[in-house]
Structures are given as C-alpha cells and as structure tokens.
Amino acid sequence: MSEECTHDCSTCGASCGERAEPQSMLKPLNPASHVKKVIAVVSGKGGVGKSLVTSLLAVTMRRRGHSTAVLDADITGPSIPRAFHIHEMAWQSEDGIEPAVSQTGVKVMSINLLLEEETAPVLWRGPVIAGVVGQFWTDVHWGDVDYMFVDMPPGTGDVPLTVFQSLPIDGVIVVASPQELVGMIVEKAVNMADLMKKDVIGLVENMSYFQCPDCGRTHEIFGPSRAEDTAKVHNIPNVAKLPIDPRLAALCDDGSIELFKGDWLDGLADAIEKM
Fold this sequence. Notes:
alpha/beta; two-stranded antiparallel ribbon; globular; 19% strand; eight-stranded mixed beta sheet
C-alpha cells in the first residue's frame, strides 16, 4: 500500500495494488482467424468418452452447415486425430500453423500433428503443456470458425485452468458416465465451471444404456441413469444420453467418426445453435 494512500479510493490519487483492476489473462487469437463460439468439453475423470463427445458434436454441427474445429487440449492423451483419420503433420504458413482438415471439413489441431512419431510420449510438466495449449489458440491459423470445441484433459488441474483463463470459453459441456463414483467426480468439473463463471450448456451421459440389436430392449448396464438428477441439482438445462454401441467404438478406431448415425446429440446441438 502506498504511503500516500488516504484509504478512500474515490479521492485518493495514489497508485496501489488495492485499486488496480484485475488484468485479463485471455490470450489473443491468431490475427488471421475468427472464431465465433468456443465450447469446452470437460469431465471429472478420464475414460468417460469426452473425446468421443467432442468428435460427435463437431461432426453434428458440421452437418448442419457450420464451420467447426477441434482444439485437442489433451496433450498427453490425444485421441482426436485417430477418430478423424488424421495422420499428417501440421505445417507452417505465413499466417501461422495450419491445422489439419478432415474429410468433411472439420479443422483439427492436436499435439500428434507436431510429433514425428504419433506414439511418442509427451513427457512435459504442467506449465509446458499449458503453454502449448495456449499456442494452439494464438499460433494456429484457424481461419473462420463458427464453433470450436476444446477437448479438455480430465480433471481440474493446470491445463483445464489455463484453458478457462486464457481462451474465451462461451460454454461448457460436461461428460459423465452412470457409475456413482464418476457421478460424484463429475460434480468437480461442474463446480469448476461455476467458479470460472462459465455457463454449462449441457450434460452428456455416455455409456448410459445398451439397446439389444435382437429384441430392442434397453438395458442399463452400469445402473440407473443419474443424468437428470445431476442436471437438476446444478441447473443444467440440457441432457443427452449416449448408448454403449460397438459401432461407435469401431468408427473411432477406424478413423471414420464422421460416418456415425444417430440423433443422440441433436437436442444439445439445438442448444448450441441458440447460444
């Protein structure tokens, strides 16, 4: 505190920490790019299908005629390129690093596009990983994008915090699975979004049920759904449920996620368009 401080900021002319405005930590977007909406896809733990949901949403919005992109912020466990059958390296242009483009026009940036070997482990500490994610926003030439989906790493650590603070996140989609433990953990992700003052657009319950291809009956393999109850507690307006479907897993493994058939996320896509 300054020695000249009068303890009345309305009349005091001193410059001190108490009267300083909080500085924005948002990073500037690549100057040759324009991104209208940025949506973070988060989960409280790994293995619940966050990358699958990210891919399906990007494809769904692309099918609706929007320009879409995926920023793969899961640096140590990138799976987006495989889902879209992208294996080429990114390259540098005069406008920045050029993202890969899928067969249907979804733009993708992932650490795998910068590694000589896709299977090479990323042995970096948290601050370095967070810095790379920031560079995906500032240094990549995204061009014009209507909806960018950020595939977040699981949890509430360094990288998710960096994304929330340095990217202009317009909304959050939380991915969960029916198990009680995961349901408890996912509340951490919801609460983190609340603390960062980000609106949760919807909740996606992955592996919600299995529909028998022979008799058509629906079976809740992991127990009764808790999606509606969780959404009600946290005032989340939209709920979507993805089935346990071997065909989806096969499409991801084959790099053909853009060929999926299903309307599970249509309601959530409607909500995204109304943002």
